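Why does this matter for the project? Reviewers at the last site visit asked to see concrete outputs rather than summary tables. In response, this paragraph embeds two records directly. Each consists of the residue sequence and, immediately after it, the corresponding structure tokens. Nothing has been edited or filtered.
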Amino acid sequence: MSTTDANGPETGRLGRLPDAVAARVVTPAVLRGLEPVPSAMLLGRAEPVGDEAARWAAEPVAELLKEAEARFGGRRPTESDAWLAPRLHWTLRLTRAEAADSGLWNFLALCLRPEYVMWRWGGKDGSVGQIARFTGPWATQAFSRLWWAAELFRDGDNYAPVELACSDQDILNTTLRFRMIQHRPAAQALLRLRARGTVATGRDTNAAVKAANAATMLVNEALAPDEPPDPEAYAEWLEEAGEGVVRYDNVLPRGPRDGRVRHASVEALTDWFDELFAYAAVRGKEKAEK
């Protein structure tokens, strides 16, 4: 049964925690694992978000995160990213404008499931190295990075490219910081480079992304046009929240039916990025070739 904290959201609903509040509570003692996150107190400082729609229910998200911890508890936590990212995106159905609100991600990390952050990013001594894993830039924060990776790498309703991207920490940690990844054919082309073996190491990935990003979005659109978004299909997907059941097996859910990326555009950019990478400066490459 859900209850309501003073001035806060119902505990059964998602909310938002302002950045200023979040930053004050993540103290050095919390980061070192010496003190727990005061989630109960923070819930009372959180603000309501959304409406009564099923997509704002907190329980499905919390259960999904618990499942990720249990499923990957005996393995390296990094291995959970590829499994969790598409399922988090499917479960937490947001518009891009809603996903740009850092307060929502603060709420997930500090009120809903701080245990996940400590598990995923904690060292052997129980410490979390960066405050940004709790509250920080969207490409770094524990949950927003996975949701946005799924949004940017999915191919319409197909989450398979998300699994590929998030199973490679070099791609996941490097690409999100660059603007070019917002062009859908460019995102898929980078994955093709990795699949081809053209880009094989973390240094390769960093060099390839920088080279591709140096080519402006205007050039990308001219060489490899993308389909315009389908807001009606996305809105329909949002409204369907709660109608399905989260799949905890290895079968991927289906994302928004808002159109696949043009195959010809992906191929054109893959070939072009391949040429750009041939001339890109890869740190240590010259020494390795001698």
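We now turn to the second protein, recorded in exactly the same manner.
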Amino acid sequence: MADKPRFGLTAVDSVPLHEKVYLELVRALMSGQLRPGQKLTSRKLAKELGTSDMPVRSAFTRLQALRALSPMPNGSVEVPLISAERFEQLTAVRTVLEGTAAELATRRINGNNLRAIRRHAAELTQAARSGDIDDYLRRNHDFKFGVYRHCGNEQMIFLIETVWMQVGPFLRNLRIGFEDDLAGILGIDYHEEVVVAIEAGDGARARAAIVRDIEEGATHILGQVNFPEVPH
């Protein structure tokens, strides 16, 4: 019997492998599938992803440059811990970038794209009601980037992704306080308001809803988590 995957990643087998491995790790970081402080080794990940060590090591190097992973003395890497102050700083950056992306995207989203965004929103709501935090975090990622990718600015998307790689693992802490009923998380989740704003073509309203979603989620995390004292 094959080993059960340990990190929730999907095996990749198409070319170019180094890029597929990198993107798989990026998605795992951004969607909160990897935890702060989690240790990763190229050998174990290569086995899970069905590839050799080389593309995994290449991905590790790229992600270290983006501060998404930290090197360990034994050659492995770690999903870094961050201080509360740095989390707040990253949250402030998110509100600016993601609020702007949502506003710009509202002007460009057409009927077909809007249907996809509605579907992502419905899946996000269902994930919360089903009580599955992993599915909720994946759907949260898919919904938000389903909006942002229509902003028409690839450099802005790159910056948003870079920030998400650093904060994504900490978004798992959104579940704290909702262990008995994850649906309660919808009280600090404003994705439905974002959809309404996009349907109305109101970019300013979409920006405001995204900013509120980010800020209330961050406030919840800061109130629930004892962040470590680590260098910025």
